[in-house]
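Ticket opened by: R.M.
Priority: normal
Category: complex prediction / small molecule

The reporter submitted a protein together with adenosine-5'-diphosphate and asked that the result be attached to this ticket for the collaborator who will pick it up next week. Submitted input follows.
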Amino acid sequence: MAIKVLKNEVINKIAAGEVVERASSVVKELVENSLDAGATQITVEIAGGGLALISVTDNGSGIPVDEIELAFNRHATSKISAFEDLEVSHSLGFRGEALPSIASVSDVEIISFNINDSSGVYAELEKGAVVKKQKQARSQGTTIAVKNLFRNVPARLKFIKSKTTENSHIANVVSQYALAFPEVRFTLLIDGRESLKTPGTGNLIDSINSVYGTEIASNMLPVTGNQGFNASEKNIVISGMVASPRISRANRNYISLFVNRRWVSNRNLVWAVEEAYHGLLMTGKHPVAVINIEVPLADVDANVHPTKTEVRFKNEGDVYMAAQRAVRQALVNTAPVPKVEEIAASYRGQSQIIVPPEQRRMDMKIVSEEEVGTPVVASLPVLRVLGQSMNSYIVAEGPDGIYIIDQHAAHERVMFEKISKQKQQQGVEIQGLLEPVSIEVLPVQDEVLNKNYQLLAEFGFTIEPFGNRTYIVRTVPSIMYKRDWQAALNELIDKLSMKDRANITEHIIATMACHSAVRFGQSLTLDEMRELVRQMEQADLPHACPHGRTTMIHIPQKQLEKEFGRT
Ligand code: ADP
Ligand code: MG
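Result attached by the on-call engineer:
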């Protein structure tokens, strides 16, 4: 074949491979265009995972009638005219590639009205070329509808996973921009259902509330827009919000980073943010953070890749340091280091409860102090924590040999006693939910809960029947507030359906203890282990969990000596 210049149609389709990787890339490009057009209201509507329809409507500047064709031309942009403009232009787009790329792999319809025109315009594009154009009225702004995405790129279609996956990618893109632009009202409709709506108040916390819900929103701490800490960082301004260490997530998807309000992915920056949480989060847990980094345009290069999600900084190290310090400051200013479970002050120094030995098990009756019985087995000696094994066992040393402690069983015991004492004394400590949570129970559970919800109130769960198997939960036990109390409640309902209700109180408390205890397999810091062991030392019955299982194994010095033939 002789060398020849490719036709525009082919060039665009090839370029589309980079810019339009999947449906969510189209959403990203269109939303960025709307933001660049100064829109204060953006509605994204999708159907069929974005493959059938992606429509973005804004109230931005609109495109002039006679520039419609141009907008879909490759390298046609209204945002820059010289390369140097990149250092002064705040726009998200500048490469003039998105519209032609999108139009080359889909069917596009556009309606736009620019205020300087006498009328709005409607146009249809096929294979990237305008095939129909006419006047059409609309208010100022633009609607672009992308249909049949990738129909002419079967290879790409093959890589598209399920519609659910595509939907969640799209929801993520819109969520990220909603977080970056709290002053814009975003609406996302997926197959006709409203999946996201932000109020556009300009307050980040309102966007966070819409995107992540009240539980996260109520635990966010402001990262104040403080300047860098030393001279070289002085042009770097970090702002946003980060979650208190009480809230954490199992993956890094809740860390949103923006550079000059451009959504970026940058591993080192993520790492910098996570470093700020050092010692505050359990291993394997990740923070929630929404952070914008404002740097002079001349100090950052977004022109690394067509999608512009990668950026390069002139002074990388300074940016990371500034981000890390700002986040750390937000955390240490307001959040105390969380302990495994801080022991209620009232719990300490209490006189020992006397329990007959035969009751030191799951079916243990809670006895009042007046009752006579054998004093509790000697409590634990003071132990020195040596470390953790298999993320499950705490290895400690005592005056007479080695102790191996099952962390879950041990903590369960501590929590069991704590709840029991609360129940006997001032009552189980409750925590009101920020917003009542409605739960729907299974038909088999409905009857049980209806009969027992008043009993559960004694344990901190304030629940009201709401009809149709629905119940409203208003408060939960404080110890479960940050835990998966819904799972605990579910288990409690099942416990309550048991025929034999003789020891129902103990069963309820044991279930609550189990759900508020540290997990088997959860890595603990030395401080957390020390705290747990300290609580164990003070427990009345440290040797067995509420289910009667052993919490610890003691290998006395004598036995060690015997095993090693040292006697
Ligand atoms: P870029 O954003 O890099 O300029 P695009 O291909 O995304 O390139 O868009 C081309 C041009 O079309 C933009 O520069 C802008 O002038 C115009 N445009 C695209 N979308 C909109 C919109 N929603 N509102 C107003 N103008 C738009
Ligand atoms: Mg663009």
